[in-house]
Amino acid sequence: MVLALGLSAFGVGCSDRAQSSGDGDSAEPLGIGKEVTMPIPESVTTVVSTGEQPRSLLRPAYPAGTAQRVTLYTAYRIEQQLDEQPTHDYSTPALTIPMTARTTADGIDLILGTVTSPDPVLAKALTKIGGSHASFDLSELGAITALRLEPAPEAPHTARAAVEQAFYQAVYRSIVFPNEPVGEGAVWMVHQEVSSGMLLDQVTTATLIEREGHRLTIDLQVTQTPKSPVWNLPNRAGTLDIRDYVMQGAGTITVDLGLPLPVSGSITVGGHQVYRDPRASSVLQQTIDTQVSWTE
Description:
There is one protein chain. This protein has helices at residues 14-19, 120-126, 157-171; strands spanning 36-39, 43-49, 67-82, 88-89, 92-103, 107-112, 133-138, 144-150, 187-195, 199-212, 215-226, 230-232, 239-256, 264-276, 283-295. With 296 residues, it is mostly beta strands. Helix 2 packs across helix 3 (157-171).
């Protein structure tokens, strides 16, 4: 029962995507040097409070060709213990991805700069990933509906998988705007299904803390809950009963309606899970912490 998934909350990495079956995701993993498209489940937004006057619709307001330089930072820590055995660390190294974003009629095109990591082995592999392309398809409300990745042909598998994981983390921490006018103090909830070997319901509660022109400061509260009490393991390896599952977190981001990506902010989500093998008495415990940050 060595389940070094490392990505059970979101941000499904290349190797996990290749192994996973039964989660409805047949997207081809990175690794062959051509563009790969991965659809993102639809988000449903519900307004809890419209906030103070004045109120207006929050909509991206940039023309095609708008450019922005921004840096994405992601970190993912997971520790796993089986019964009374020693705890093992299956964390993935942190990644810093500078990129140039340019808007199109349908979404956002990205060109990666020099990607770095504190892990020396991964850092060496990442020297070939610079210049890779990515893109987001967007809805009218700013929701990301598809992620496309086109790694540089000479980039090794480890670098491609690390970048894919980082972008998945960013996608599932992105903001979706409400479909009615709101003002400062407004609260809305975003419901989205997250597939990571098991199906999760993710609820993000957004609060508009401050608005100065096109610039918005938004507080985010995130929770995830399994849609089933059973985890169907990859490759038909059996099932585990979900005995306990807690994933929650918070953060604040600043977005500019005239720019395609967040200008600053950080979101941290973490928790713990306990699984039991119904065919034996074995118990698996996981502790997870994730962070996504944006800086200009």
